[in-house]
Amino acid sequence: LADKQRVVRAFDIGGSGVKTGLLGASALQDFLRFDGAVMSAAGGAAGADEDLQWIEPQTLLGVAPGEDGFSSWLLEALPRLRREVDDPHVCFGVSIGGDVEHATGKLRDWWPGGGHPRDFERPVLVAELMGLPPARTFVLHDGEAHLLGCSRCAVPPPGLACLAIGSGIGLGITDASGAVVDSSHPTGARSYCLSGIPLSGARYQGIWKQWLERPGGDNARVEEVKALPFANMVNKPWRMPWVSLVLGRRGMEMAEAAFECPEPTADNDEVRLPAVRAYGEQWLHFLHTQLVPQMCTGTRRHTIERLCFAGGVAERNWPVLRETMVEANSDMLLPASAVADDEASAAGSSKRGRPSQQKPMAPSARPTVMPPAPVGSALIGSAIYALAGVGGGAQGIWAH
Predict the structure, then answer these.
(1) How far apart are the first and last CA of the chain?
(2) N or C: the chain end with fewer CB closer than 10 Å?
(3) Reduced to 3 states, what is the DSSP secondary structure of residue 325?
């Protein structure tokens, strides 16, 4: 951050495509807090909510064709990238879904910018796939990128879980010192699991079927949402629902269909209230029955004390989601009385398929909820990581 001439080209490669932004080290230094203050869900800490001054704000480049031809597609979508690759003052941060080896910048599998899922026989170097200089390119998982960018702090708060809501659900966690728990390390990977399965793919039935029981809830639009393919499950994914399907963007689409609400626009918040509230109640149900009992109590190595929501769905709908999930006077998660009864509970399952019977959490276990992450938090987080990396300090971000 001290190098005023340093510039970061950040990429966020996710289910909706490839996003990018350009920012300077000095602007990032002005944006971040260094005093350790943690904002409340309502905004808190004076001066911490100032906008980041981007050189180029977040832009969606489109959907990449896949791993073959990715670099040529990227140059065509972003012609000035060629100059940046040749400029030693520019470093590159990449946030990407998939199985990332943070120590090497290699991938074992991924969803390439909205394209098809792919497992590689050998790990591939992301920098080479994208046509970027390996020595100045630093890659991390999208959940951890959102985590680094969500809190507006140079060092994230301890015991923080950032839940990124996009096409799927990303997760990033800090330890008791604020260091990022590495999901690519065997020890850290266990802290990202529910009932032994990574959170994004853990089974979760949700409470969405209750929406369909109301008059008009089970309609033709609902059937259209059910029929849409998701990830690599083309045929009727809602028959075996899991976290990313139920709680990601598709879950919001299901709520919009069941409550006959329109998709979001600049001025239709009021007519969308039933769908957003139902979606928020489903998130609250998941937190009470799954995440908090397993991650906020007991003998978990990395205990969660705070939650932060990131991604476009959270950004767009936060006022209503906050009202639905957060206790106004304390910024704590609303108590268990807001959760649906056991019959509608859809506890996650273990690898053997047995339902895990989670007890409601004690009041003392309720985590606090921070404000939503700033727009472009994955780009911000990948920029922070790149600046740390080019300065030789990337490994210092990770918990050891």
Answers:
(1) 23
(2) C
(3) helix
Condensed to tens digits (0 to 9), the pLDDT of residues 359-385 reads 444 545 789 999 999 999 999 999 999
Total residues found in the chain within this entry: 400
Cβ(130)–Cβ(94) below 8 Å: yes
Both tokens of 237, joined, read: 């994914």
Q: How many CB atoms lie within 10 A of CB 277?
A: 17
pTM above 0.85, yes or no: yes
Which tens digit of pLDDT belongs to each residue from 37-77? 555 555 443 334 468 999 999 999 998 877 778 899 999 99
- Distance (Å, rounded) from C-alpha 7 to C-alpha 49? 22
Place of tokens 């007519």: 271
Which segments of the chain does DSSP mark as H helices, in order? 25-31, 70-77, 81-86, 126-130, 142-150, 186-189, 208-213, 220-227, 243-247, 249-258, 273-286, 292-295, 312-325, 377-390
Enumerate the β-bridge partners of residue 197: 194
State which amino acid sits at residue 275: A
